[in-house]
Design brief:
Among the domains are: about 55 residues; about 50 residues. About 75% of the residues lie in helices and about 0% in strands. The chain is built from four helices and no strands. The relative contact order is 0.05.
Length: about 150
């Protein structure tokens, strides 16, 4: 291609853009067009609200409900991962304490292992219950839980 072809193409392109800009300005300034667009947007909003109300009456979650539930589920998942990480760190610390105590008791000639703290057993039971509640396994959710409404918190 030559420079003349590119110059002509650029000139035609600019003229087309200017023409479209003028048409858009005239349409935006026309009260009839603005009113029609306004009414169309209002009708769309009312239809959306009616659809959400109908879906709610049928117990079907809307896309917004699903999105809120997804965000909350991600939040719970992240919190649970944090708890698991903390439990892992505690487990490592307890193992190192156990190792140190084992060496100390072996040196002292005692073969008795220290008693576990009852609070740790309670925490282990709580974590097991939390895991069972969050990830119940193969069981389907209870029928009553299927109809829970999701609210923004």
């Amino acid at each position: 291609m030559t420079d003349d072809d590119e110059g002509i193409r650029g000139k035609i392109s600019r003229q087309g853009e200017e023409a479209l800009g003028r048409i858009a300005e005239e349409l935006a300034g026309n009260p009839l067009v603005v009113g029609a667009l306004s009414r169309a947007l209002e009708a769309r909003e009312k239809a959306s609200q009616a659809q959400e109300a109908a879906m709610g009456a049928l117990g079907i979650p809307s896309a917004a409900d699903i999105e809120r539930l997804t965000r909350r589920l991600r939040s719970v998942s992240q919190r649970l991962e944090g708890i698991e990480d903390t439990v892992d760190r505690l487990d490592e610390r307890l193992a190192s304490i156990d190792d140190r105590l084992g060496k100390t008791t072996a040196k002292a000639g005692r073969a008795k292992k220290p008693e576990p703290d009852p609070r740790l057993e309670e925490i282990a039971r709580d974590l097991a219950a939390l895991r069972a509640a969050v990830a119940p396994g193969e069981e389907p959710p209870p029928r009553a839980q299927e109809r829970l409404t999701v609210t923004e918190s």
